[in-house]
Amino acid sequence: MNPLDTIHNQTILIQSSFHPTPHLETEMEIAERLLAQNNTIYWLVCKKDFKVCFNNPTHDKWICNVCISREKKGIQEVKKNAKNPENLIIIEYSNYLKFEEYVSKQNLKLDFKSIQELKSYSYNDYDLGMATASSLVSFTRDHEPKLDNHQNFIADGIKTGAYLFETFNTITKSINPDLVIFFNGRFVENRPLLRTCQQNNIKYATHERGGKLNTFLFRENSIPHSIETVSKEMESLWKNAEDDKNEIGKRFYTNRIERVEDAWYSFTKEQQEGRLPESFKHNEGKKVITIFNSSLDEYEGLEGFGPYFYENDNLGIKQIAQSLSAHENIKLYLRIHPNLKGIDNAQNKFIKEELKTIDSIEIIGAEDSVDTYALINKSDIIVVFGSTVGAEAAFAGKNVILLGRAAYEKLNCFYIPTSHEETINAITNSTFVFPKIDSEETLKYGYWNENFGIKYQKYKPINISKGTYKGKKIKANRITSELKRFFNNKK
Fold first, then answer.
1. Is the pLDDT of residue 210 over 80?
2. How far apart are the two ends of the chain, measured CA to CA in Å?
3. Could you give the CA distance from residue 298 to residue 340 in angstroms, rounded to a whole number?
4. What ranges in 82-144 are assigned the alpha helix state H?
5. Pfam family of this protein, just one (predicted)?
6. Long-range CB contacts for residues 397-400, cutoff 8 Å, separation at least 24
């Protein structure tokens, strides 16, 4: 039984904060299913209260209007169809605390000299600066954004995060919920609710996309990205599987090789199958090492992520390349993550200005059509900092060095060094023995990816970003949508 089905006769607070499909529809489904189980639901909606949010980082008026309109339509659909609709109570932030009234009385720090200073800023033991930084990094796609260019964003983020923290404390004390439900937990609009629950011992659940298009994640007392939670979930799913778990685990890897988009976009679909770098014709007699990097902005602001002992991926790669410069029998490649294609950020700047100057490393660009899977198969050792490629390479029977936190890190099919020296020894020492690959271990990760989440009953996906709820597309008011397009085109 999934956890959603066990919730009966409770008082529940649902925060609505991220409205693109399928996330609004997920909240609708959660609300309707919980109403049918005789729960009382307080649905907390934003009426332009967020001055910064993931869906509308610049607080564009018409994006707000469309968001509010679409959410209103979603709530109407739930009320029209749900059992016990009288148990659905819509509440607004301003009912409890006015934004301008609150902010005018606060002495909040709004000016920061570095991203590190911003990250370390706290408000009533809540990591407000980290939440703001996480939203800023996602907005700019840059793990080291230039703060001078984003002073308004930062100020609005700090104000929004502090205001929401105080408002959530007021709301939870007022309605005394048994359970609080919200999206993701990473960003400035929902991190304060996460911290409010944790500080006051309130049970909470986060929702996100599931492992497949037809599922959604509903995780109790944990954020979607928790490595510890995922590891336990992975073992539990594998242990309790009643289907052909080995074949299903294999399917995850074969689908990725075939570029199937069944949960998220395929980053390798533009690559040319079987294509290798031209330099491969000169690699005879050499040990081929390929590093696959990650997009640093993707895990910025997430607790517990990052390299084990290097300061960050970029500096780790640079140190490895420098240490291998004297080894002429080793050919080192760096495959840039395709998600970094065309992005002007600090990570790509470092790659261009620092890594490309090192003769011992050949860089395969994010836009290059070299086939990731051909590269894996032709390499002797794969080095990753947490990328899913690490699990894919282990599935292919390759020796893998894992240098950073990953959802699959507890599986027994990688070598995890404890220092730079151990890393270099594993690469250069011909007598070094890698742990024996346990093929079943890699299948656990594949099986988990194919199975985690709860199946939708009311929402039906069409593709990654489109779907219907009980046969209807949940759309904003047509005039509001047209006005948004008009004014945005005018800009």
1. yes
2. 50
3. 10
4. 99-103, 115-119, 128-140
5. Capsule_synth
6. 397/437, 397/439, 398/437, 399/434
